[in-house]
Sequence to fold (251 residues):
Amino acid sequence: MEKNVILQIVGMGLTFFAGVVMPVIACMILLKKKKDLWILLSFICGGLIYAAFQIGIKMTGLNVLVQYKGFQRFMSEHYLWYCFLVGLVAAILALIGRLLLFFTIYKKKRTYEYALAVGLGYAMTEALYLVGISSITGIVQVINGNAVYATSLTRELYLAAYERILLIIIQTALTVLLVYFIKQKIVGFGIFISLLFSTFLEFLPSFFLYLSTKAMYEIYSREIGLVFVYITLTATGIFGFTVMSYLKRKI
Fold:
């Protein structure tokens, strides 16, 4: 088996492990530590929020809209606005799901541990849908010799694993932060912060990479675009981890 093929398999395996397995392990550790079945239920609820609002509503809606020529024209002629609106819609739907959960079933269970588990479940389901299934499929295809990635794309497979770790931290931090604002009775500010961070988290990677395309006269190379993306994600991940560490003593 060629070295490049082995690297591809390892890269996709790491992406699956980072995005899907690590949140499950983190949930199991939390469950063992607290010995509270609600931890597991919180993890499941987080996954259901993503499945219902992002897959069920957002993706279904996009699949319907993309059938219309007017929407296709808007995507082509105003790509950055399209990315921004998709990011905003995704942020709103995620926020609605979290608010519904913590104002109904979890109205009396607004704790740090439950918020942490909800965030982990949300991030795990997101990773499973976006990269997890494709990683397993890709591994099978590579083993069968049906798919061979360029060396540059092989490098991006390893970056994808790092990206999933950062997104786990960020999505979990957003959930914990929202619960903190709810408990402090400053829900409006919490909604604003959640929408702001979530929208730009979705939008900025597309923005940075779009500037490297021919449509924008290749202002810089794709590699430089990726550097900007991962600097942004890393900074946000560090901030999110710091916020979670601080709020652990506050919620």
